Amino acid sequence: MRRHIPEMFLGIGFIGIMTTLYLGMNWAPSVSIDAFESPAAQRIFYWHVPSAWAAFIAFGVLFTGSALWFFKRSPFGWRLHVAGAEAGLACGLMAVWSGCVWGAAEWGTPWDWSDVRLNTFGLLTLLALFLVLGRQSQPDGVETRDTFSTFGLYGFVLVPLTYIATRIWQIRHPGPVIAAGDDGGSLQSSMALVLLIGAISFTVFIIGHMMISMRITHLEQRLEHAQKSLDGGN
Amino acid sequence: MAASLLSLVDVEVRRGMSVVLTGFNLEVASKDVVVLHGENGSGKSTVIESCARLLPLETGSVHHHGALVVDSEGRRSQPKQPFGLTLQSNGLLGDETIENHLAAVCSLSGMKAELLPTLETYGLAHRRFDRIGQLSGGQARKVAVLAGLLPAMLSPQPRLVLLDEPDTGLDENTLAALITDIGKLREAGHAFIIASHHPEIMKCATRLHNLDSETIQEQPTCQPWQALGIPNKVSRLSTKTGHRYLRSTRAGLARNGLTALLVIGTLLAFIDPVSLEYTLLVGFVLASPFAAGLAGDPVVNLMREQRAVDWWRAHVNRLPAADYFAPVLGFILTALGSVLFLDAMNWKLSLVGAGVLWATLSCVRFIELSTLRLARPNAVFIRLLLPILILPWALIVEYAATL
To answer: Are B286 and B400 in contact (CB under 8 A)?
Structure first.
């Protein structure tokens, strides 16, 4: 039973995400047509915000794993790094893609190179892509792990920068809808409920994804060790 | 007791996922010739590269002439005394001449010398003005070995020389000259660490080391080497070397200059400058220095050849860099862009363009250098990180439009 916990997380998360999509598209109330250029497109927000939330969790795991490898030489830390990078890439791409769709409908342009929030989040996703592709292009070893862990550690600077970006320099991206302080009272309770279901579902899904990723990395390491034993190495 | 030129204390080094050296200690004094021998993969090159500060240490420290040069805490200091280094890869740039490369080695030692007699001994005198890329593999190896011996040949003070498989590709006469020179230099007080399996090299050792234990060998006395060098301090060696590389290869123009010209040409092919607003035109003007910067540092690209970057990294903390190239090219490109897009030369904008190219190139250089330790640095998708520069560039364009 315990062996299948990651698959259970993935399954429950997937069902939750599908439920969120259904509720977001069919049950959640529409926004005012005066407040948005394209009110119907706003429903993508039930996908965009939870996926961005899950991406931040994944980037946090990436940072923790990088630190554990870099400072403690922990093999578990390296597996966390790999899992965080892969999950960060998946969720980051989901958030960026859905944001571009919404931006095209609402702003008339899918991307704005002068918006700090868009750029810092896009960069985090590119960093995750760099780490995933880079790891696949290099043989496993301390040189590879040290270099990519360093990028993971420095890249995490972008996370708080992304978080505060719309609070300090709101250019095009809307302000915060969660933890917005005094200005955050505009979200209706039914909207908040769908968003909460989405956030929980994405979190459960991403945890399952990372657990499976760590298992695969562990198996890869065992396979490489076995191959080295067959080669006559240590 | 002779002065210690090198000490490795409790050194542990990993390569890949293997621990190659663990708890390794070595003390090398003046007049020692330590020959490391053993099976392939036993760690001979790892010892040489650790002594040259090229590998990070898991534990322990390395000292040259009693001063710390690298340790497991990440401290990395430039050796106060120059040392000789020949890596398994030659560490040479194909576009350099033999004369220029050896002159750079002399400058690293703070010396100058007439090298013609030494070049004659090694059969290279007639080739001294040739580019290294035009030499055969064996001739290039001779240059690399000579560059490793040179700090000791120049100096009357004891120097450390690290040679990794120096015999590879050498003919019999050159090998005999090398062994004779090692003996004379040892007699003059210099010390060697040599990784080699060659029986003739092993014969000239005072200590044969198999990384577990060592055997002492007596060596006959011979005429000591007479130092060739005259003190000659060279300032800003990294900058001068970087510019010399670019002058001899024109890599800066080929790589960065052409990229920028292609950007200008592409923009002009599609756009009528008369119909556009001023901020957009300023963006077009500053696009070419930005693109030239994104193309990367041409000196770093050149130094990837034959591990030249590692050879330099062992000797200096600041790698060769063409410091003036970026601002000068940026100024010229922006001035050209101003004339083409704005119909007039704009001095302030040209200065901004110089800064844009310099800053962009510096950032790309920093990112490129940070991945050099990887096994396959060319295979890493480093340019995925460069969009980080677009937002600052866009802000600079907005500011420049107000000038």
So the answer is: yes
CA B242 to chain CA centroid, Å, is 10
Mean pLDDT of chain B: 89
Average pLDDT over residues B84-91: 91
Residue A171 lies in a domain: yes
Which pair of tokens denotes residue A28? 């959640």
The per-residue pLDDT for B102 is: 92
Chain B residues near any Cβ of chain A (below 8 Å):
14-18, 56, 58, 370-371, 373-376, 379-382, 384-385, 387-388, 390-391, 394-395, 398
pLDDT digits (tens, 9 = 90+) for B251-264: 889 999 999 999 99
Domains held by chain A: number: 1
**Mean pLDDT (whole number) for B123-151:** 91
Least confident span in A104-108, B333-337, B399-403: A104-108
Please state the domain extents for chain B: 4-231, 237-400
Q: Does domain B4-231 have CATH number 1.10.10.10?
A: no
H or E element in which residue A159 lies: helix A158-168
Nearest to A81 by CA among A68, A65, A69, A92: A65
Cα gap B169→B311, rounded to integer Å: 19
Secondary structure, 3-state, B339-380: HHHHCCCCHHHHHHHHHHHHHHHHHHHHHHHCCCCCCCHHHC
